[in-house]
Design goal:
4 helices, flat
Length: 134
């Protein structure tokens, strides 16, 4: 499978997982009588940040792997480090800006960033085939 198609497929799966998790989070806020528009806005913005972070991480990893395949490991490592640093700075700045705006619930804004790992773990658990053969 083409690496770009694989990245888009994994990002689409993550997006579906984020929608499910954000809907559950909004439901929990509603059950706790804390629901308002800031929860929905925070969840949506947090989800977009989480999905964008994953997508750009996958693109950067693919580019670094291409460099390593071309026997240019040093450039690949430098590319990974710079891409990681840039993603973290942009994510942190956007989180602070949206949190300070007063239009987003801070917890709802941050929670989607924590959803990626469980989503990936669940999707990999249910993945078909592709195991290591001995």
């Amino acid at each position: 499978m083409d690496s770009r198609k694989f990245i888009l497929q994994k990002t689409a799966i993550l997006t579906v997982g984020q929608v499910v998790c954000i809907a559950a989070m909004v439901g929990i806020f509603a059950l706790l009588n804390q629901f308002n528009y800031t929860v929905v806005l925070g969840g949506v913005i947090g989800g977009v940040l989480a999905i964008g972070n994953f997508f750009f991480m996958a693109i950067g990893s693919d580019a670094a792997a291409d460099k390593a395949a071309e026997q240019d490991v040093k450039t690949g490592k430098a590319l990974m480090k710079s891409a990681y640093g840039l993603r973290m700075v942009v994510t942190a700045v956007l989180l602070v800006v949206f949190a300070k705006s007063g239009h987003c619930n801070v917890i709802a804004l941050a929670c989607p960033l924590l959803f990626n790992l469980p989503i990936i773990m669940v999707t990999e658990f249910f993945r078909k085939g592709g195991g290591v053969k001995k």
